[in-house]
Amino acid sequence: MTTTSTPTSSTKAAVLTCRLAWNHPLPDGNKRAAWAALIMFLDLNGYEWEPDPPQVDDAETAMLAVAAGDVDEAWLASWLRERTRQIGQPHSG
């Protein structure tokens, strides 16, 4: 029997962030756009940073590693799980 698990919010956020950073949809600012999308995704899904705000150096190092391809989506999802907490329900419509 095969079971399919639903991706967690941190996994979805990691995929969104990595794909934006890796695929370079913009001529400039892809890391910033990926970070902004990450923040918006977490907020819309009822999550916040723990501690608030995240350590700038920690977040910058993570985004640079993502953009360089040094880490994968699973690593970023784990990194996010350690640094975010659920504060409410996802926003609807």
The major pleated sheet works out as:
2 strands, antiparallel
CATH architecture grouping: Up-down Bundle
Low-confidence stretches: none
Number of domains: 1
What average pLDDT do the residues reach?
90
Q: What structural class is derived from the secondary structure elements?
A: mainly alpha
What is the topology, as strand order, of the major beta sheet? 1-2
Q: Which fold name fills CATH's third level, the topology? A: Four Helix Bundle (Hemerythrin (Met), subunit A)
Based on CA atoms alone, the radius of gyration comes out at 13 Å
CATH class: Mainly Alpha
| Shape designation | globular
Span of the ends, CA to CA: 35 Å
**Any idea what the CATH superfamily is called?**
Fic/DOC protein, Fido domain
What does this molecule look like?
The structure is a single chain. By secondary structure, the protein is mainly alpha-helical. 58% of the residues lie in helices and 6% in strands. The protein contains four helices and two strands, in the order ααβααβ. The chain has helices at residues 9-23, 30-44, 56-68, 73-83; strands spanning 47-49, 84-86. A two-stranded antiparallel ribbon has the order 1-2. It is globular. The mean pLDDT is 90.
Structure keywords:
2 strands; 4 helices; Four Helix Bundle (Hemerythrin (Met), subunit A); single chain; mainly alpha; about 90 residues
Furnish the topology, listing elements before pairings.
Blueprint: H1 9-23, H2 30-44, E1 47-49, H3 56-68, H4 73-83, E2 84-86
Antiparallel strand pairs: 1-2
Helix pairs in contact: 1-2, 1-3, 1-4
TL;DR of this structure?
This protein is mostly helical and 93 residues long. It has helices spanning 9-23, 30-44, 56-68, 73-83, and strands at 47-49, 84-86.
